[in-house]
Amino acid sequence: MTLIEVFMQELDRLRRDELGSRTDSSAEAIRDYQASVHETQTSISVLQQTSGLLSMEHYQDQVYEADQLEAEVLKVEAELRQVVSEVTQLAQDLGVPPELAAAVLQLYSDHEFLALTEQMSEVAADLATASRQYGAAHPKVRQPKLAYEALQRDALSRVDAMPGLDQERFGRLGLFPDGNNGELLTELVQKESRRAGLDARLTRMREMLVSRRQELLSLAPTAAELQDMQRNFDVAEAIFASAIARAEASRTDLYASYPLAQVLEDPSLPETSSAPMTKLSIAAGIAATLALIIGLGMAWFRHLLLDPALRRYHHVDESG
């Protein structure tokens, strides 16, 4: 096995170890992120189930609906004021309370009552003619008067048969039929019915609005908490997705820590040996020999120069 093969095998082993270490670390981090995402999602689900609120957008939709309901309440209030004004004016013109208008209109549609009132009108005309010609005790005056009173009693008995009416109230109001009042009574009944409907509708809408406002007020903290939890969930989910992407990228990137090594050029044997160098060795030997000879020569020459001087010095010293 060549050196390059051993080197490559060692690199492969190091890469596998590094990849395993990164995979284990990424798997542990992914499990932690997944647990965080699951925990946040569970908390959101529990809060949604207990509050009935799905999200901040759901809360804002409910606020918008409450605002729309309030605007509708204001609109119905204005419409009710207009109808009340019309009912009051009609009741004053007719002299009939709105609550009795329907009963009076029903009475005016009773054929027997209408026949009696028609006969009363004829007898009243005869009585008026006779009263202008004769005295009150004259038989021609008393007879139509008695007939008129009998017809009036029969007509009032029909009044008692109508719910909400009695002879006393009917007689006090003087509500005997008038051809011009039928349409006005019908209009009064219609407007009173509309007024009652608007009033009932307005009452329900006001109760609904108060209930909705109270509910929104109690849901406001929950909506804020749900928004925060949703934001945390989005962040945790993004981190989880990023961790998975990084794990996948590191799993495929084998050369992150240990780059790919390549042989740029195959090795080749030299044409001549690099050592020993014969010529250089001979030259070095010659140079060393010359240096040794020169050194020995200088030492011998120094001896020749110094010995006579030393002998003269010793001789002078002995003679002195």
From TrEMBL:
The chain crosses the membrane at residues 280-301. Keywords: Coiled coil, Membrane, Transmembrane, Transmembrane helix. Residues 59-86 form a coiled coil. InterPro entries: Bact_polysacc_biosynth/exp (IPR050445). The keyword Membrane applies. PANTHER family: CAPSULAR EXOPOLYSACCHARIDE FAMILY (PTHR32309:SF31), TYROSINE-PROTEIN KINASE (PTHR32309). This is Tyrosine kinase G-rich domain-containing protein. It comes from Palleronia caenipelagi.
